[in-house]
Write a structure and sequence with these properties.
ten-stranded antiparallel sheet; 3 domains; six-stranded antiparallel sheet
C-alpha cells in the first residue's frame, strides 16, 4: 500500500530538495543503493537536526569538518565546514582500520586465509629464531581483536627500521594472545602485511574491485611503509560520503545494490562484541571491541579515528552517521550524538515541516571554520613589510621568513633546507594553496590572517585534507619577530613553540 503521509511529504517538499538537507545543488546524487530524502520523511525532525549541529558547534568550536546522516539508506542531512568540502578527501587516521578489517573479511570469504591462521606462518623469514610460545600462539583473530598479547602498542618501535614486519615480530609478547586488550596500530599494520603476502596486492588494490568500485568510492589513497605495504591501521583518505557508504554496507549486512559483497557472518562477527576493553558505562571506549570496530552505548557500533573521524552505525534506528573533525574531545562528540540526535529519531514519517527544513538548510549551507580574528591593517604592517628575518636554529630547519603586507592578501615566504615556500593569507576569507614542503601529511592548505593587536599578526593554516591545523602568531618588536606555532589536532606538542628571528640589514 502507498504511504500517504510520506507521499504528501514528498509533494509538499519537492521545491526544497535542491537545498542542503537533501542537497543536489552541491553535488550529484551518489551512486549506490541510496538516495536523498528530507528528515521528516525519514522520521527525524529538521529542527532537532538543527539543534544537533548547533550543539556540536557550541561544544567544539571550529573542530567539526563534516557531517552526513543517512536513515533508511537515504541521505537526510549533510554539511561541510569550509574550507572542507564534499569532494575533498579526508585523512581517516584509525578509521582506516575498519577498511582493513573489511579486506580481511573478504579474503576469508574467498578462502585466501583464515583468521585462525598463525601470524608467524606468513613470515618465516622475519620471525625470530626463538619466537616464544606467545608469539607462536598469535593468530589473525588476535590482531583483529587488539588481543595480540603485547603489553603496549607496537607501532613506534616497529617503525624504527625499514622492515616493519620484522620490527613487529621482534617485540616481546608479554601476555597470551586473546587474553589482554591493548589498542595497537601495529597489529592492524600486520593485517595489511598478511593480506599483501597472501594476495600479492596492497589492501588498497585488493579492495578496489571488491569494495571501492562497487560502492562508487573514487580515488582513495593509502600511505605505505618503506617496502610498499599499506599502513593498514592509518593512512587512508576518502570523502565523508565514502565513510557513510562503508557504514551502509555493514548496516545492510554486507549487501550493496542487491549483491553480497561481504558475508553476513563476517559483518556479525566484526561489529559484535569480541573482547572486553573496560568497564566504564559512561565511556564509548569501554563497551567492548569487535574486529577493528568499537562497540558503542545504545547498541550501536563504530569505526573511528584520531581527532574525531567517525563511522557510527545504529542498527536499531537504521542510521549511519559519518563525521570528520579535528577534535581533542572525541567522547564529547559522541555525547552530543546520544543527547541530541538519538532521541530525535521516530518510527515512520513525521508531518512535513517546510520552515524547519529551510532553517536547517540555511545552517548547513553556511558552515565554515572561523578565519583569523582581528583587523586587516596595522601601522606596523608598512614598517615590517618587505623585511626578511633570520631565524635562530630550530627543529624545522627554517632559516628565514619574510612578509609582504602590500597586497589584498598577505604573502609570507619561508626558506628552509628544502628550499623556498610562499603562501598567502586572506582576510576574512581563506586563501587556498599548495605547499612544496609541507610540515604535516598534506600539502593542501587554506590560510587566513589578521592583526590581533597593533604589533601581532596571526595566521590560521588549515590542512584541509586532514584533521590538522596550525596557528602562527607573529609579534614584531623593533628589529625582531617572535613566532609562536601552535598545532591543533596534533600528536606532537599542542602548546606554543616559539622561534625568534632578527631582521636582516
Amino acid at each position: 500500500m502507498i504511504d500517504m503521509k510520506k507521499l504528501l511529504s514528498i509533494l509538499i517538499l519537492v521545491p526544497l530538495l535542491g537545498l542542503t538537507v537533501c542537497t543536489t545543488s552541491q553535488k550529484d546524487e551518489p551512486s549506490g543503493n541510496t538516495g536523498y530524502s528530507t528528515p521528516e520523511m525519514e522520521g527525524i525532525s529538521s529542527r532537532a537536526l538543527l539543534q544537533f549541529v548547533e550543539a556540536l558547534e557550541e561544544a567544539q568550536p571550529d573542530a567539526l569538518h563534516s557531517v552526513m546522516l543517512r536513515r533508511h539508506g537515504n541521505i537526510v542531512a549533510e554539511g561541510w565546514w569550509a574550507p572542507y568540502g564534499p569532494d575533498t578527501p579526508h585523512l581517516l587516521w584509525s578509521l582506516s582500520k575498519s577498511f582493513t578489517s573489511t579486506a580481511i573479511g573478504m579474503a576469508q570469504d574467498e578462502g585466501l586465509l583464515s583468521i585462525d591462521d598463525q601470524v608467524i606462518s606468513f613470515f618465516p623469514e622475519d620471525t625470530p629464531a626463538e619466537p616464544g610460545s606467545n608469539l607462536e600462539a598469535m593468530r589473525i583473530r588476535d590482531l583483529l581483536k587488539m588481543n595480540s598479547g603485547h603489553q603496549s602498542g607496537t607501532r613506534s618501535r616497529m617503525m624504527q627500521g625499514d622492515n616493519w614486519v620484522k620490527g613487529f615480530l621482534a617485540q616481546e609478547v608479554e601476555h597470551k594472545p586473546g587474553t589482554h586488550f591493548v589498542y595497537n596500530s601495529g597489529a592492524t599494520y600486520m593485517l595489511s602485511a598478511i593480506l599483501q603476502k597472501v594476495t600479492g596486492m596492497t589492501v588498497l588494490d585488493f579492495l578496489t574491485p571488491r569494495l571501492f568500485e562497487p560502492l562508487g568510492i573514487e580515488n582513495p589513497s593509502w600511505e605505505s611503509d618503506p617496502r610498499g605495504i599499506n599502513m593498514g591501521g592509518w593512512g587512508l583518505s576518502v570523502t565523508t560520503e565514502d565513510i557513510s557508504k562503508l557504514g551502509t554496507l555493514y548496516l545492510r549486512k554486507g549487501v550493496w545494490e542487491g549483491k553480497q559483497l561481504l558475508s553476513e557472518a563476517w559483518v556479525e562477527e566484526a561489529t559484535g562484541y569480541q573482547t572486553s576493553n573496560g568497564s566504564n558505562p559512561e565511556s564509548d571506549w569501554d563497551q567492548g571491541y569487535g574486529y577493528q570496530f568499537w562497540q558503542c552505548r545504545h547498541n550501536a557500533y563504530r569505526g573511528d579515528g584520531a581527532f574525531g573521524q567517525y563511522c557510527i552505525v545504529m542498527p536499531e534506528q537504521d542510521v549511519v552517521l559519518a563525521i570528520t573533525s579535528g577534535s581533542d574531545d572525541m567522547q564529547g562528540i559522541l555525547n552530543i550524538v546520544w543527547e541530541h540526535l538519538l532521541p530525535a529519531m521516530q518510527e515512520g514519517s513525521l508531518p512535513p515541516d517546510e520552515e524547519g527544513v529551510e532553517q536547517l538548510n540555511q545552517k548547513l549551507n553556511g558552515l565554515a571554520i572561523s578565519t583569523a580574528a582581528g583587523d586587516k591593517n596595522s601601522p606596523k604592517a608598512s614598517e615590517v613589510s618587505g623585511k626578511t628575518y633570520t631565524l635562530e636554529p630550530n627543529d624545522r630547519s627554517i632559516k628565514t621568513i619574510a612578509f609582504n603586507f602590500e597586497d589584498s592578501s598577505t604573502e609570507i615566504t619561508i626558506t628552509t633546507d628544502q628550499g623556498e615556500e610562499t603562501f598567502r593569507a586572506g582576510y576574512h576569507n581563506m586563501e587556498k594553496g599548495v605547499l612544496a614542503n609541507p610540515h604535516l601529511v598534506s600539502d593542501k592548505v587554506a590560510v587566513s590572517g589578521a592583526w590581533e593587536t597593533a604589533d601581532t599578526y596571526t595566521v590560521n593554516i588549515i590542512y584541509y585534507e586532514t584533521p590538522q591545523s596550525t596557528k602562527y602568531t607573529f609579534k614584531f618588536e623593533e628589529n625582531r619577530v617572535l613566532w609562536d606555532r601552535e598545532n591543533r589536532a596534533s600528536f606532537g606538542p599542542g602548546h606554543p613553540i616559539q622561534l625568534t628571528g632578527t631582521a636582516m640589514e
